[in-house]
TrEMBL record:
Keywords: Lipid biosynthesis, Lipid metabolism, Membrane, Oxidoreductase, Transmembrane, Transmembrane helix. It comes from Lodderomyces elongisporus (strain ATCC 11503 / CBS 2605 / JCM 1781 / NBRC 1676 / NRRL YB-4239) (Yeast). This is 3-oxo-5-alpha-steroid 4-dehydrogenase C-terminal domain-containing protein. It holds the Pfam family Steroid_dh. Residues 156-280 form the 3-oxo-5-alpha-steroid 4-dehydrogenase C-terminal domain. It comes from the Eukaryota. It is a multi-pass membrane protein. The chain crosses the membrane at residues 167-184, 262-282. InterPro entries: 3-oxo-5_a-steroid_4-DH_C, SRD5A/TECR. GO terms for biological process: very long-chain fatty acid biosynthetic process. Belongs to the steroid 5-alpha reductase family. GO terms for molecular function: oxidoreductase activity, acting on the CH-CH group of donors.
């Protein structure tokens, strides 16, 4: 057996020692022991070893052995460190919550016309109706993928991230798109006419853009299915994907996502859609 000393880097966690494991044991076994000893979720615990060459803490991978994490096989004494990451929330929950925002704002501004301070009900244009439909279909697809397609390499993230991540979808693709796109297009002029402008393209052009959007969305789903099948539920190993889209560009899932929002922006032509499209490009680019 190996003597393992775990020093705490957080006030909320006690230091710990174990003589029941070896370098061939899984790191996850020690994390379970720490979790039970501190009566704390294992997802809050980050176990690390000190790299003496540069003084940095190197996180250990739970589903690998100590030896696989770079600790010499057969070591009789191991010094490790543990840190409390704070309250955590599952990635799946965060995705479900952040994608739900548009389902509140878009129906609200589409159906509650009194929000635009109009005395007489108005009829939405073809572009507005199509924009409403494809936005909700887009986020319905996102929710479906979160539940049945995506596999996450980490179980949780810091609780605060749910507020940070939701801002992008609740405000930018929720309120931002809904409020400025569904207003009565014939009521405003001048600056307000620009703020609430929505394109009035020929019917054939509207449906051509919807067809482009549908192609992009289905292609995005296809690439997500390919990525999902590459990874086992508990594996963090990355494999180079091949097949549909991946033979054309490096990250086709981001490419098709951007293409779908480009089709939306061309359909409505409102400044808010172009801002969201631009930010989506930046967000996708940061994920490369």
């Amino acid at each position: 057996m190996t003597s393992i000393e775990v020093k705490s880097r957080s006030r909320s966690i006690k230091s710990y020692s174990s003589n029941e494991l070896t370098t061939d044991s899984l790191v996850g076994e020690l994390i379970e022991e720490l979790s039970q000893d501190n009566k704390m979720s294992k997802h809050r615990l980050r176990l690390t070893r000190l790299d003496e060459t540069n003084g940095k803490q190197i996180p250990l991978v739970a589903h690998q052995t100590f030896a696989q994490n770079g600790i010499p096989k057969g070591n009789e004494k191991i010094q490790l460190y543990v840190k409390d990451l704070g309250p955590q929330i599952s990635w799946r929950t965060v995705f479900l919550v952040e994608y739900f925002g548009p389902f509140i704002f878009h129906p609200l501004f589409f159906f509650v016309q009194s929000l635009y301070n109009v005395a007489v009900p108005f009829k939405h244009t073809q572009a507005q109706v199509l924009a409403y439909a494809i936005v909700l279909l887009h986020f319905a697809k996102r929710e479906y993928e979160t539940l049945y397609v995506h596999k996450f390499s980490n179980a949780t993230m810091p609780l605060f991230n749910i507020f940070k991540n939701s801002t992008h979808y609740w405000i930018l693709s929720g309120f931002n798109l809904a409020y400025f796109v569904y207003a009565p297009t014939t009521r405003y002029s001048g600056l307000l006419g620009f703020i609430f402008h929505v394109n009035e393209l020929p019917t054939w052009a509207n449906y051509a853009l919807v067809a482009l959007w549908a192609f992009a969305e289905l292609s995005n789903l296809k690439t997500h299915l390919i990525l999902s099948r590459l990874r086992n539920e508990d594996a963090k190993k990355y494999v180079i994907p091949y097949g549909y889209g991946f033979n054309w560009v490096s990250c086709p899932n981001y490419f098709f996502e951007s293409l779908s929002w480009l089709a939306y922006a061309l359909l409505v032509g409102n400044w808010s859609a172009w801002i969201f499209f631009s930010l989506a490009l930046v967000k996708c680019g940061s994920g490369l």
